[in-house]
Amino acid sequence: MKKSIAIALCVLCLSAGKQQVKPQNTPYQVSYVRQFFLDDHGKLTEAIDRILVKGPRPADSAVLYTWTGEPSSAESTALKFAVNKNRNEVRINDTRITFLPPQKVRIGKDVYTLTAPYFVFLKKQLLEQRAVADLASLLKDGFSHGDSDFDELAAVTWQPRPRPLQFRILEADLYHKSSQSDHVYRWKAVYYYAPSGKLTGITGDWFNLTLLAETSRHLTYKAEREFDKSSLSSTIWINKRSGSDSSRVTSFQQGLSKEVTYTSYQSVPVNIETRAKPRDLQDAIRILAQAGVRIGGS
């Protein structure tokens, strides 16, 4: 498996004017990404398909379809939005995302401290545009370790290109529920950047990330995590143009004395606008197919 895996991303965004636009005249967004997993010999072991259907700005819901194998096995997750009257909090299903001025956002129990421009941007995107892809980007960039209610959404990169350099996570106060018991770990992380805005490292309890190298195309990071009777070591390559990543991961479970190595990367995300609301997954697949998008290995 070559270290440099270039992944181009397409736009996942919604726009609306000052006047309310009738939903039937406003595009829906159908987005598709495939995630690949290879074993330590480079053999494909699993491929996960994901389709995100997002309504126009006045809509208050989105649907994420996820499957392995055939679309008939897909699981669907409806993401329903509710904004409080003070307009400082949005609830997505049972999770509350609260914006705490001047620069903190609380997602469930986790709290991220952001730069002021990033805080303002994220608040507007979630409260006004219901842009769940931007929430997914925060969780993925913040290395939340798979404890979020939005794991499937945050498992891949939906954004078209790297964020502006002033959009940074400064600190995080995170919680992790043990898979071995009812114990909940609380850990803090601090994010470090070069003057240019490039992430150079993250230090935290049980987790560290370090910038190893930089080429004209990629940033290479080393990430290490150790808690809950398991350890994980990753080499991560981030495409400087698209902002997407690929990674080679080695995990070790102490209780089982078992080590597993695999590589993960994703396909080129595609975003299609449609005036008509997709009725279901098959309708979303039909819309993608009409645009020339191949689903899975077809």
Q: Give me the secondary-structure category.
A: mainly beta
SSE series = EEEEEEEEHHHEEEEEEEEEH
Q: Give the biggest beta sheet.
A: 16 strands, antiparallel, barrel
Shape: globular
Strand arrangement, largest sheet? 1-2-3-4-5-6-7-8-9-10-11-12-13-14-15-16
Low-confidence stretches: 1-24
Helix content range of the residues, please? 10-25%
Beta-strand percent range: over 45%
Number of strands: 17
Distance between the termini: 23 Å
What Rg do the Cα atoms give?
A: 19 Å
| Overall residue-averaged pLDDT value | 84
Question: Brief overview, please?
Answer:
By secondary structure, the protein is mainly beta.
List the helices and strands and how they pair.
Blueprint: E1 28-39, E2 44-54, E3 61-68, E4 75-83, E5 89-92, E6 95-100, E7 104-107, E8 110-114, H1 116-129, H2 132-141, H3 151-154, E9 169-177, E10 184-193, E11 199-204, E12 207-214, E13 218-227, E14 230-239, E15 245-253, E16 258-266, E17 270-274, H4 281-290
Antiparallel strand pairs: 1-2, 1-16, 1-17, 2-3, 3-4, 4-5, 5-6, 6-7, 7-8, 8-9, 9-10, 10-11, 11-12, 12-13, 13-14, 14-15, 15-16
